[in-house]
Amino acid sequence: MGYQYVTEEQMQRLVDFKGAREYHLKKKRDKVDKRMSLSEAVGRFVEDGDIFAETGFAYVRAPLQAYFEMIRQEKKNLVGIGSPMSNCSYLMALGLMKAIHLSYIGVEMRGNDKNFARVIKTKQAEIVSIWSHGAMALGFKAAQLGAPFIASKQLLGSDMLKQNPYVKVIDSPVGKDNDPVCLIPALFPDICVIHVQKADRYGNAIIDGPAVNDIALAAACRRVIVTAERIVPEMAIRENTSGSIPFWYVDAVVDMPYGALPGCCPGYYYWAREWWEWLVRCSTPSAEAVQDFFDYWVYSTKDQYDFIEKLGGIRFIDKARQLMEAAEADIDDSQISFAYQEVIPQRN
Questions:
Q1: Which among 246, 252, 273, 249 has a CA at the least distance from the CA of 261?
Q2: Average pLDDT over residues 126-132
Q3: What percent of the chain has pLDDT over 70?
Q4: Is 270 exposed, middle or buried (0-12, 13-18, 19+ CB in 10 A)?
Q5: Which residue has the higher pLDDT, 307 or 173?
Q6: CA angle in degrees (0–180, nearest 5) for 23-28-32
Q7: Residue 241: is its pLDDT beyond 80?
Q8: pLDDT score of 104 more than 80
């Protein structure tokens, strides 16, 4: 096989249609109160060696505080997947994640993330398959639909096919002429954490704004943790026609205000731009700087409220709320400024 960190069983589990189907059929459909603390949810449902799917869109509605709890609990031997999957970078740098099914890692607006190149070049982690955004999304969608694969033109004409052991090319059985298509298999990660604006105690959840791949991932993953800005009555979900995730996919519900910080959560708060610039521009160039950064921001904090105090407390939160409301045209923004002090590394 030629892989250093991922096992043959992990490689096959990702596309095990029959095994995933049997797992999902055995999941209980009872309406029970699934609320628990973040520490308990991560401890119970994120297992060492899991195929872990990143959710949200990089730093938009991503369950960042849950990722930080995974760091505190020192999960290990994770295999990453997602579209996009920018947070896998520091999970690899900190030793939690040893292998990835790669679609995209980057943070262009904040600088050049040097974690990824360093851990791959030094063989601290490895890439085991390469995908386009669209191809990986189709894999999650196939799992959601209960289809073993989806035939698509995605990846044709790309060298990514040479670095992907899962996707097969055949002549389309539809039509008279030879017409190649890719068979993109259904993808079944073990676990994902999805941050939502609202959820009820049973796991029914509402995503406001772009869902990205999260609705498909809720159906595809064997285990699902939902973290929510608000826990609302079940009737509030029933009355909302945009209800996104049904309860029977969800294993744990965490009441998690500010669970997407230092990213943004549409409708609630803007992101901490300086925080990401300190990480990407100043810390990623060396492993020691990354460790120091997370020692301060994660290992020395116990929850999102400790984290917020380091960001600036209520003043930061109030400003982040104003910026989000201005960005969504929900307030008079004539006196709102998006200007901030950019973090520029000093050159020696």
A1: 273
A2: 97
A3: 98
A4: buried
A5: 307
A6: 145
A7: no
A8: yes
Is residue 21 classed exposed, middle or buried when 0-12, 13-18 and 19+ CB atoms within 10 A define those classes? Answer: middle
Position 1 scores a pLDDT of 53
Q: Which residues contact 144 (CB under 8 A, 6 or more apart)?
A: 215, 216, 219, 220
Q: How many helices (H) and strands (E) does the chain have?
A: 13, 12
Rounded distance, CA 235 to CA 254, Å? Answer: 19
Tokens found for residue 46: 């994120």
Distance of CA 254 to the CA centre of its chain: 16
Q: Hunting for tokens 């285990």 — which residue is that?
A: 223
Q: CA of 212: how far to CAs of 122, 141, 154, 194, 215, in Å?
A: 32, 11, 18, 11, 8
β-pair partners for 308: none
pLDDT at residue 2, rounded to an integer: 78
Strand order in the sheet with 149-152: 149-152, 180-185, 168-171
HEC profile of 8-43: HHHHHHCCCHHHHHHHHHHCCCCCCCCECCHHHHHH
Looking at residue 215, its amino acid is: I
Q: How far apart are CA 269 and CA 160, in angstroms?
A: 37
Nearest to 171 by CA among 163, 160, 162, 180: 180
What is d(CA 113, CA 280) in angstroms, rounded to the nearest whole number? 5
Highest mean pLDDT among 104-113, 137-146, 237-246: 137-146
Residue 222: phi, psi to the nearest 5? -70, -35
- Whether 212 contacts 57, CB under 8 Å: yes
Q: So what's the pLDDT on residue 75?
A: 98
CA-wise closest residue to 278 among 264, 288, 263, 289: 289
- pTM check: above 0.85: yes
